[in-house]
Amino acid sequence: MSNQYKRGLMWFRHDLRLSDNLALQRLASDCDELIVVFVLPPSWRAVNQFQSRHIGAHRLAFLQQSLQDLQLRLTERGQSLIVLNEEPLLCLPTFIAQHQVDVVASNYHPGVYERRDWVSLKNQCPDVVFLQEEGATLYALSQLPFDINDLPESFTPFRKRVEAIKPDRPCQTPTHFPPPPPALRQNSAAQLFEEIRGINTFEPRVVGGESAAQAQLAYYTYESKLLSQYKQTRNQLDGWDYSSKLSFWLANGCISPRQIYYQIQAYEADVEKNESTYWLKFELWWREYFYWYLHVHQHRLFIFSGVKGKKPLTTFWPQRFKAWMEGSTPYPIVNACMKQLKQTGYMSNRGRQLVASCLVHELNMDWRYGAAYFEEMLIDYDVASNWGNWQYLAGVGADPRGHRQFDLAKQAQQYDPNGEFVATWQGESSVMPMNVVDESDWPIT
Prior knowledge:
Elements (H helix, E strand, L loop, with lengths): L4 E8 L9 H9 E9 L17 H19 L5 E4 L3 H11 L4 E5 L4 H13 L4 E5 L21 H8 L47 H14 L6 H4 L13 H6 L4 H14 L4 H23 L20 H9 L5 H13 L4 H14 L4 H11 L5 H12 L13 H8 L4 H5 L21
């Protein structure tokens, strides 16, 4: 008996996995033939107004690995990934028409461009059915205990209202995939990536893909039992085991937040339930809050005055921004964090707070330049968490206190008392002049 649709197209975006993928599961059960696509736009590597790119070499390498793992997993099931190196609105309408696609499915993402592209694609393909599922959050929109337009203005009221709600359990990986159309059965994504060389990742275990994601989840919970001490170690600045590191895979959708949540639940039942196991769920709720925060506020997450509509007393100083990026400020702890980021594509959560506070409060810089630089550099870049946290530190977002400035010397003494982190990443390097001209553009000697 024929299925509901003859030919479906799965548009992978921030959901590079086969398990707990509602959109993929639906197409697998409803289509006779299936095309699997990922779009890698050239514009991602173009320099933007903040002197950064959407994706840098570290994240691009991780994305490549994630897609290769996805391709391998699909190949094992008789499917094949097609990677299109064009802008989505330029290539997808033509591709859909050329291959006579009946239905397109994807998992919902709150990003401004992601939402715009989805609506525009629907408008360009009026005869095609479009299906969207919710696969990036703990809770579906319908599960939230308030109207989404009444989202609390800060995290704590949100967390108190949602933490008692049990997310839906992860859905199963389809046991059967429809085949691709005959004309596409020899396609392979393997040759569609440029070779990326010379990338020094944070640690050998930082490899993109669903396979590595599941291995890390198993390691951090049952294999090592490091989850039991997460709250005590999470503020460390360097190393692998002080935190879960699941953010790498979570940001690319190689693993879902529901899979992590229910692994923690199982660990609490089988091994131990304590403040640390709760605290990793607490971090998932933070991620959840910023996801819905972006859903509600959209472009206001990216403007100078932020969600609060309050312009900070900061500006843009090219020399200061360069010093901050290169780790040549007067603050050794900041320098060490920034050099770690540049070399590895990673920085600890504590480090991110310190360098953001430095850029905004010590260097009096426009916070958006820092957020855009993180977007380019971080392997675990997540649009909602990144820009939401930068607004938080800049005092224009979800922080009820409105001004989150850290005492950098005190923080260094607390989290790097022996100077080991600063020494490892050469934070004591010679300081570049913070300014080369004064406010009247006269040279400073």
